[in-house]
Specification:
By secondary structure, this protein is of the alpha/beta class. Helices cover 42% and strands 16% of the residues. It has 10 helices and 8 strands.
Length: 285
């Protein structure tokens, strides 16, 4: 598949794809921190295309990327846990010269990596937006552990099916977000692409390890602003866990988006809710 968006960046013997949107870095940094977007399980830069478009319309620079082995990026070493993924991201930011500070935005499983990043580089982080995100504490509960166990098994089955070309006839089902253009085509392609599925399953396989790594790193600095955006407004025990990082922050923002689902939060219908949370973080002093 031809690369239509972003560019390939050498991080030391292998390449990752980065997609930047919005004003040039030097112009953007004078006005607002760069927004660094982390996709969830099986997700990559395409997931953030609508959010990036809407942030650019607000004059905000954002960066999305494909983790090793996913999308257009080349494979990385095992294990694909929180530390190895963060090390790749650090190399990518260094290689591209995309300087801090950043507003970190993480969807789903990426909530674990965002927490790890914020702990390791507290002085780089202006604020955090968690989008229907997981936290280490979710795995302390039976429903969280059961979800991870089932998701690991399903992820390996999905990767095997994609590797055997069994999913290719159903590739059009690959976009559950509601994307358009090149990003939509990329998402559908990745859904049935064996290497992408295997790399994603390797990350999911290490979910509990990544959760333990994030927990060991510690929580967010209570002085940085934390926004949480969740899918749906129905009460659920998991929402108390999702919103806990915001409630622990001195400056916090919580929005439960009626009608949104875990994936559609990132699409055309609901992405404005994520943008508003980013702008709220940006405007905190």
């Amino acid at each position: 598949m031809k690369i239509e968006r972003g560019r390939m960046v050498d991080i030391g013997g292998r390449r990752l794809r980065m997609v930047a949107a919005g004003p040039p870095a030097d112009e953007a940094q004078a006005k607002t921190p760069t927004v660094l977007l982390e996709a969830g399980a099986f997700g990559f830069s395409a997931d953030w295309s609508v959010v990036q478009e809407k942030l650019a319309a607000q004059g905000v620079r954002s960066l999305a990327y494909d983790r090793a082995g996913m999308g257009r990026s080349e494979r990385g070493p095992s294990p694909r846990d929180g530390h190895s993924i963060l090390e790749d991201l650090e190399k990518l930011l260094t290689a591209t010269g995309e300087a801090p500070p950043y507003i970190l935005v993480g969807h789903s499983m990426a909530g674990l990596r965002v927490q790890l990043f914020a702990a390791r580089h507290a002085d780089w982080v202006r604020g955090v937006v968690l989008v229907d995100a997981s936290t280490p504490e979710a795995t302390d509960h039976g429903f969280g552990r059961n979800f991870v166990r089932v998701f690991v098994a399903v992820s390996h089955l999905a990767a095997a099916a994609a590797s055997a070309w069994l999913i290719k006839p159903f590739a059009r089902m690959g976009d559950s977000i509601g994307l358009s253009g090149d990003a939509k085509r990329e998402k559908q392609w990745a859904y049935a692409h064996g290497p992408h599925g295997r790399a994603a399953a390797a990350e999911v396989h290490n979910w509990m390890t990544a959760a333990d790594q994030a927990r060991a790193a510690g929580g967010y600095d209570p002085q940085i602003p934390v926004a949480v955006v969740t899918a749906g407004d129905a009460p659920h025990p998991f929402k108390h866990i999702q919103t806990a990082p915001a409630k622990a922050a001195a400056r916090n923002y919580v929005k439960h988006v009626a009608g949104a689902k875990h994936a559609t939060l990132l699409g055309h219908r609901f992405a404005d809710e994520i943008v508003q949370a980013v702008l709220w973080v940006r405007d905190q002093k």
